[in-house]
Amino acid sequence: MAAKIIDGKAFAANVRERVKAHVTRLVEEHGVRPGLAVVLVGENPASEVYVRSKGKATKEAGMKSVEHKLDAATSEADLLALIDRLNRDETIHGILVQLPVPDHIDADKVLAAINPAKDVDGFHISNVGLLGTGQKAMVPCTPLGCLMMLREEHGSLAGKEAVVIGRSNIVGKPMAQLLVKDSCTVTIAHSRTKDLPGVVSRADIVVAAVGRPNMVTAEWIKPGATVIDVGINRIEKEDGGTRLVGDVDFADVSTIAGAITPVPGGVGPMTIACLLANTVTACCRMHGLAEPEGLTA
Ligand SMILES: NC(=O)C1=CN([C@@H]2O[C@H](COP(=O)(O)OP(=O)(O)OC[C@H]3O[C@@H](n4cnc5c(N)ncnc54)[C@H](OP(=O)(O)O)[C@@H]3O)[C@@H](O)[C@H]2O)C=CC1
Ligand SMILES: Nc1nc(=O)c2c([nH]1)NC[C@@H]1CN(c3ccc(C(=O)N[C@@H](CCC(=O)O)C(=O)O)cc3)C=[N+]21
């Protein structure tokens, strides 16, 4: 039987509506408007697309949106000075520095400079540590979006076998933490994993975050498993154009999976919706106001 296709775009639209409703309450009842600052260093066509769609979605949700586009040659000191200004700006509740940053800038140092309360990406070590110890944290947007879709699909995740392919700090590791927190039995696989197909075939839940087009095929998948495809890979078409594909061979895997996210239209839109949700959450925490329900981990 063909897999259910999880409509990330529709789910994200629903999350954005709920964010917008909460923003309206914050503005009307408390005179507070959540603000998000996105910082982009250098010219990266893909990053510019994301930054533009983040800005548009932020405004549509009724929030303040600020974009800082810095020259590729911007010094680390100048970037740190901008972050310091945004940290002290009371109209800004969320700060996101688009990754990757140019080689002459130390990304760890930049992330550590962001006020953890405004760290809507959840990349600051104090948020990483809070998440890892099961405390209230800012949770990275992509894994949070994946978790929301999995909870919607399954209700409780307790006792499920989950395999996360990829161990990056921005997707794989925080995804695994969230699944453990929801009582899954979690395996993290990576490039040195032996018998990856064998490991993946045990899973009730597969999250692929690798960056290799169509790597995961039907033979790896336990019948009925839920497959979340985080990968964003731009590949050449026969006609010379390009198209986006995930890390999962969608046509193949959807013949055996129980449910699957498409690329595009799956995890990507949820990432942006969760960024807005995190900005509202950060704003509420900063002002000691009630947080939106169902929009945090
Ligand atoms: N939809 C969205 O919102 C987002 C999508 N992405 C996409 O998700 C993908 C992953 O991103 P990110 O985590 O940043 O990528 P990284 O490159 O940081 O990490 C990739 C991971 O995949 C592992 N890996 C590489 N090759 C293999 C292999 N052959 N078998 C098993 N594991 C392998 C690597 O292992 P090792 O550690 O051993 O090198 C690494 O842990 C990319 O396509 C990216 O574009 C990312 C962020 C957001
Ligand atoms: N500090 C930081 N935080 C991030 O969250 C971050 C980052 N840096 N660097 C780059 C990655 C990538 N990322 C995506 C967001 C949305 C889509 C998205 O909306 N994708 C659409 C398609 C978009 C298109 O057509 O290009 C979809 O999958 O349907 C994809 C990828 C966030 N990232």
From TrEMBL:
Keyword Amino-acid biosynthesis found: yes
Pfam families assigned to the protein according to its UniProt record, in alphabetical order: THF_DHG_CYH, THF_DHG_CYH_C
Residue span(s) of domain Tetrahydrofolate dehydrogenase/cyclohydrolase NAD(P)-binding: 140-285
UniProt-listed GO biological process terms: L-histidine biosynthetic process; methionine biosynthetic process; purine nucleotide biosynthetic process; tetrahydrofolate interconversion
UniProt keyword Oxidoreductase present: yes
Superkingdom of this protein's organism: Bacteria
Pathway where this protein functions: One-carbon metabolism; tetrahydrofolate interconversion
Documented EC number(s): 1.5.1.5, 3.5.4.9
Binding residues annotated for NADP(+), in chain numbering: G166, R167, S168, I232
GO cellular component assignments: cytosol
A GO term for molecular function: methylenetetrahydrofolate dehydrogenase (NADP+) activity
Catalysis: reaction(s): (6R)-5,10-methenyltetrahydrofolate + H2O = (6R)-10-formyltetrahydrofolate + H(+); (6R)-5,10-methylene-5,6,7,8-tetrahydrofolate + NADP(+) = (6R)-5,10-methenyltetrahydrofolate + NADPH
Keywords, in A-Z order: Amino-acid biosynthesis, Histidine biosynthesis, Hydrolase, Methionine biosynthesis, Multifunctional enzyme, NADP, One-carbon metabolism, Oxidoreductase, Purine biosynthesis
Tetrahydrofolate dehydrogenase/cyclohydrolase catalytic domain span: 6-121
NCBIfam families: PRK10792.1, PRK14186.1, PRK14188.1
Function: Catalyzes the oxidation of 5,10-methylenetetrahydrofolate to 5,10-methenyltetrahydrofolate and then the hydrolysis of 5,10-methenyltetrahydrofolate to 10-formyltetrahydrofolate.
Family: Belongs to the tetrahydrofolate dehydrogenase/cyclohydrolase family.
Subunit text: Homodimer.
HAMAP family (UniProt xref): THF_DHG_CYH
Protein name as annotated: Bifunctional protein FolD
Organism: Jiella endophytica
Phylogenetic placement of the source organism: Bacteria, Pseudomonadati, Pseudomonadota, Alphaproteobacteria, Hyphomicrobiales
